[in-house]
Batch of 2 targets.
Target 1
Amino acid sequence: MYLQETVEKLVPDIEINEIQLNAHLPISPEKYELLKKQTESNEILQKMKKINEEGWPLKKEELPEDLKMCWQFRNEITCIDNLLYKGLKLIIPTSLRKEMLQLIHETHMGIVKCKTRAREFMYWPGMMSAIQDIVEKCETCTVHNKNTNNKEPMITSKLPDRPSSKLAADLFQYKGEHHLLTVDYYSKWPEIDKLDELSSSNTICYLKKQISRIGYIDQLISREFAQFAKRIWICPYHN
């Protein structure tokens, strides 16, 4: 028993390429036809199409001046359905580039996201610079960035009218050992003690020892360390 021989119809390579290249383009059929029309009327793109069909010269110098910028990617250029592609990216005619820039930036994304979006499916020489320029000159983006990038104003502290009135305290670590730092707001005089342990009672004892050397204080400023928050303010001074 023999199976009946069948004839398989093969789709020409050109049609396969056309399906693969055109399917990923995020444009309407009307825009697609407009791109074809503008490509056909663009003198430089038609030169590119002709040279691509007839064969590229062996040397860059043999190209017309307005096509020398294509030399580096000449082997990537294809023509499908009268549209020119660089790899999978559609080469946009000059007359439609401004409109494409507006479409790329219509959601007011930043420079990096706009460039990423564009390079997925389109190309023309200088496209990256044009995208950066339109984003930087966008008034909407400028106003938005100005409002969102405002820095919080620095909170100033009133200078006391005498030494030892206002004291700042902080803890820090140096070479694996903990230290207590206090600074007088008025004179900027610092005091530093190495702590033998980081408990609240021990820290406060060292703090009181430093305070005793500068006199009575009205206000103590510190970060929210547990060592300062705990209310253990009665202890013998360290010798």
Note: Confidence is low (pLDDT under 50) at residues 6-21, 232-239.
Target 2
Amino acid sequence: MLKSFERTVVQEDDVPYICKILQIIANCNLSNIKGAILNEEFKQICSKIFVSFTSLSKNFVDILALIECQICICKNSKVSITSDTMDDILIFLTTLNVNELLELENENENYFKIHQAISDLCISIIKNRHLLIMDRVPQFMNVFTKQMESICFYKSQRQKHINLSNEELEKLKESLLKLENLMHLIATHAIEFKRVAPYILTFAINAMVSDKRSTTLYPKIKSHVENICYDLIKICDHRVGRFILRCSNEASRQVYEVLTKDFNKYHKFKGKI
């Protein structure tokens, strides 16, 4: 069946059905050999699907179906995902521009759906395929940074008198909570992520003091961003303070000092195991 898909030119209307079939197969209890075969067929089919995409807004249903399919593939330990397949997944996530949906009317719901689906995929990758990610930390954290940026600067170009609705804030909070959970998982691999953590921490702090209309102005959003910063501080070594103080402005330095003080007081483990 998969061979027939591979030989066929993928039509736009076929993508959700193809992804659904792949999901069903990926959820099966496969042998190692069949898992390896599925990985190869999945890679070939995805390459054809990528070519058929034109934009996120036009292919939203297809892209969401593909992400859900990738989640199922990553969860099944019997599917031996290769380095090439993981590279394709990360390239796909990197090229997605979720902010494109905000430029269109009545696309807010789709924006949050695709954002949360990407976070779910990243969580699935770090949970089930962390060995493949250890060699691709910068690419993986690039996806994380884009996810965080899209939340922190959600509709940042809006007029000053226009505030975000309660529904939007709840959706942002829900999306950011997934990123916070992802950051907790990343923190369990502190050694591998130690090199990139200072840059992500600097980005998060700068987002909070940005002159744009950042969503961190809202306390319920800011608290989750701060929790992400605490995990990043936990990963970083003692040199990160000098790095941030050297490359940041005064506002960022003050935020970093407050975060560090709160981390040492409330979050740093000081007891005995």
Note: The chain has a mean pLDDT of 84.
